[in-house]
Amino acid sequence: MMRTSSAPLRAVLFALVASALGFAACDNTPAITVFHVASGEKAPPVQGDPVKLRRTAQEAYVGIRAGYAVVRSVEDWRTLWHGGEAPPLPATVDPARAMLLVGVAEQKDVVSVKIQRAVETSNGVHVWVKETRAGEGCVNKAEHAPLDAVVAARIDKPVKFYVEEERADSCGEAPAANVQCRVGEAPAWSPKATAQPGDTIECEMNAEARGKFAVVDRVLSFGEVPGGTAAKLAYAKGPTRGTFVVDVFGTYTVRAEATDDSGRQGTAVATVEALPPKTNDVLVQLVWTNFDASDDPDTFPRVTLRASEEGARGRTCSVAQAPPELCEVKTRSAYTLMRLRASEKRLPLDLVYVDERVEKGPVACIQLYFDGRRTGEACDRSARAAGDRWSIGTIEMASGKLLDGAAQGGGMDAGADAAPADAGAKKPASPPERPPAKK
Predict the structure, then answer these.
(1) 108 touches 232 (CB < 8 A)
(2) What is the C-alpha to C-alpha distance for residues 54 and 21, in angstroms, rounded to an integer?
(3) Banded model confidence at residue 84, pLDDT cuts 50, 70, 90
(4) Same domain? 136 vs 183
(5) What distance in Å separates the CA atoms of residue 318 and residue 330, rounded to the nearest whole number?
(6) What is the mean pLDDT of the chain?
(7) pLDDT (0 to 100) of residue 237
(8) pTM of the model
């Protein structure tokens, strides 16, 4: 049978007397009592005859329930296992002549259990155990609860376990990580940077060990990214240095993670802000949603974004023709950024599909920015044939608002500042790329 109790040293002597009075009440099975001695104190000395302990292979005891126990029969053995489904009693334990003393850690931070010695007195067997807890800053990576088991000659008397605790040496602090980024080939590196769509960002991480374990793994990856982005980190110069191209307005965070040989981690984050400029020009951004982070935007349907002046002689702005006094257009892969010069005009906006768009494929979305803030958004989730035209609406250039058509297609989110509801959400749809090698 297994019984567990706890008491600080100042109460041990009282507990010994009390338990001695109660032994006769435990049917025919000698009582088992466990005393957890307060940290920094010692169990009381007990005079008696030393009991010879024999330690055998410990693998046979992995899986026993936590706590302290004495095995003098097959039934005792079975009670130690969850659900009563016990493996055969090890051949090294003959219940007719021997008894098994077992201790299994009950606390997760215990890294070692050691049954040190035992003595027999006229009224019982006294067993001293040392439990070692993980040192400060250490990680317990044991696959199972620490345990110890010893075999002794069978003694049919009550058993008292005295469990003394000690703390292992400190492992020191977790590793330190830092990450800094720069825009293009700029000489200055910083954990905070500002950029615009089309800019190339380079980030580099460093790590150092601050404890007793060496750094064994360094990972640079995306943390949060803005909705609609297809940006990916590329590791052309090793796993601690990555680059990406800003493709949409928003906040990009790059996470550095260093892991030491004990499994402890240190992290750091660099932030790249791609903010729309405060201008009376209207910025029209074509972005995409409803795709996986691993998808290549070069495979998205080809489209042409157009803004047109009204009237028979009205000019059209697109990637193919961009009158400088009317607009400026930049493209990268499937993304387009159009800058319409400030005016009092109203410009119809549409999107022509060069390729077919299947119903569940990537979704084209239009975002409008004016004076540094988003003023309109619409998405087209309809299936489209090659040559179809999506009439997005009319831009009021004086305010940057989309006057009509926005509600028809819906937006990436419910409001200008809300998180996108489609793919390209705050966290990538699939795990961020990790460098293939450890350094």
Answers:
(1) no
(2) 31
(3) low
(4) no
(5) 10
(6) 86
(7) 84
(8) 0.67
Phi/psi of residue 12, nearest 5 degrees: -65, -45
What pLDDT does residue 271 have? 98
Q: Which sign, positive or negative, has the C-alpha torsion 430, 359, 390, 388?
A: positive
pLDDT score of 423: 33
Distance CA 400, CA 83 (A): 69
What range defines the domain where residue 194 resides? 176-274
Same domain for 270 and 286: no
Q: What angle do CA 343, 344, 346 make, to 5 degrees?
A: 100
**188 and 158 within one domain:** no
pLDDT of residue 28: 67
- pLDDT computed for residue 124 by the predictor: 96
Mean pLDDT to the nearest integer, 59-68 = 94
Q: Confirm whether 375 is domain-assigned.
A: yes
Domain end point (choices 249, 274, 299): 274
**433 alpha-carbon distance from chain centroid:** 14
Nearest-Å Rg of the Cα atoms of the chain is 35
59, with CB counted inside 10 A (0-12, 13-18, 19+), is exposed
State which H helix or E strand residue 74 sits in: helix 74-79
Contacts of 105 (CB under 8 A, 6+ apart): 66, 113, 131, 145, 146, 147
Answer for the pair 411, 365: CB distance below 8 angstroms, yes or no. yes
CA pair distance 277, 156, nearest whole angstrom: 85
Q: What digits encode the pLDDT tens for the residues 12-61?
A: 333 333 333 333 333 467 999 999 998 778 888 899 999 999 998 999 99
On the 0-12 / 13-18 / 19+ scale of CB atoms within 10 A, 47 is exposed
Dist CA 78 CA 349 (whole Å):
78
> Would you say 61 and 145 are in contact if contact means Cβ atoms under 8 Å apart?
no
Task: At 107, list the tokens.
Answer: 């606390």
DSSP, residue by residue, 239-255:
TTEEEEE--SSEEEEEE
Q: Which two tokens stand for residue 233?
A: 């980190």
84 and 146 within one domain: yes
Nearest to 257 by CA among 209, 207, 213: 207
Q: Which of 163, 113, 122, 103 is nearest to 23 (CA)?
A: 122
pLDDT of residue 319: 95
* Number of domains making up the chain: 3
**What's the number of CA atoms in the CB half-sphere (13 Å) around residue 5?**
15
* CA 194 – CA 275 distance, rounded (Å): 8
